[in-house]
Amino acid sequence: MVVECILWYTSSDVGLVAFFVFHSGKLFMRPESDTAFLKKFRGKSGFTLLELLIVIAIIAIIAAVAFVSLDPLTRFRDARDSRRWADVAGLASAIKIDQVDNRGRYLNAIQAMTTGSVYMIGTATSGCDDQNAFCDTDVANDTACVNLTGLVNEGYLAQVPTSPNGDGTWTSGVTGYTLMTSTTGALFVRSCESENTTEIFIGR
After folding, report:
1. What's the pLDDT score for residue 185?
2. In angstroms, rounded to a whole number, what is the distance separating the alpha carbons of residues 75 and 69?
3. In the chain, where are the structural domains located?
4. Fewer CB within 10 A of the end CB, N or C, for the chain?
5. What is the four-CA torsion angle of 197, 199, 200, 204, rounded to 10 degrees?
6. Residue among 176, 159, 153, 158 at smallest CA distance from 107
């Protein structure tokens, strides 16, 4: 395929208009009045509008197929679930290490929890169960929140994690992660939301 490009050049000093033509790897320059030179290239065919539209349509179809096959929505959900798993594991580890370092005693905020009840991890003191519609396991009641900033103060956590937003909206007040202790001393850390997997939780 031969690609030709005609460029207009205007010299204000001499008032000359000339054509620069790239053809077969060579550069030609002719004055505007050289009609014979123009006729030489006038019959050359280029892309038609129909051909350009066909190429654009093919590119659009390929892009659409690639978009569907990659399924970005599912990938985003998987990424959020992966972060939730990591956060839950980090919380469970920090709580248990703190317990071991304190001779089997949990953080005071955890010690004060009612065993068997699910608490929202966060700094809120009310509205703890407001997002139960988005939780796989319901928070016990309106005031069932547990503040784990003590783990940050003692160096067991860099910060109390907040779940990435899915259907629910999570903040430091209600983080989207819950905690429950059992009568045997075991604990269960859960993510309220799970999008592309079953419930996200760790029991230790």
Report:
1. 87
2. 11
3. 1-46, 82-203
4. N
5. -140
6. 153
